[in-house]
Amino acid sequence: MSGDILERTGQQQAAEGSTTLSDIQDRLKRAGLKVTQPRIRILQILEQKEGRHASAEEIYRLLVEQNEDVGVATIYRVLTQCEQAGLVKRLQFEGGKSVFELTPEHHHDHIICVRCGRVEEFHDEVIEARQREIADQAGFGIEDHSMILYGLCADCRRQSADRRAQR
Fold first, then answer.
1. Spans of biased composition, class Polar residues (predicted)?
2. What average pLDDT does range 76-86 have in this prediction?
């Protein structure tokens, strides 16, 4: 079942398609932010980034590789402004390192490989419904939540099994 959940999330991402320059410009304007080259480039990178998670340092490295002249301080400032405007979501996984993704249209949770750092997104309505039930029973109204599962991905589990077999 979990494979189906991950697969559906991937299909949803593929259906979203790629965002055009004018889409990004419109998004910035609607958020009340001035359209600047650093903001455009950073949002484009987050749009194109597989899994849509990137640290400020990764964004900087990608911009340098593309001969873009944007400093690390500017990247952090733009990410913070975009987060405050609701365009970007900051996530902190194991180790407290911040990564960013475009604010998703639909809620999703994450599963992270503790060895290689691979991140998969998933959505499961049964889990979501159970969380709402628990909140209701405790007298809470959920405003926001996140769930992060930690484990070993199939590749890392296979590598571990191969190492054990070689002993």
1. 9-21
2. 96
Q: Which CATH number fits domain 2-166: 3.40.50.720, 1.25.40.10, 1.10.10.10, 1.10.3720.10?
A: 1.10.10.10
DSSP the chain: -HHHHHHHHHHHHHHH-PPPHHHHHHHHHHTT----HHHHHHHHHHHHSGGG-B-HHHHHHHHHHTT----HHHHHHHHHHHHHTTSEEEEE-GGG-EEEEEPPSS--EEEEETTT--EEEE--HHHHHHHHHHHHHTT---S----EEEE--HHHHHHHHHHHHH-
Binding residues for Fe cation: 107, 109, 128, 145
- Give the residue ranges of the annotated binding site for Zn(2+): 113, 116, 153, 156
Average pLDDT of the chain is 85
Q: What is the pTM of this model?
A: 0.70
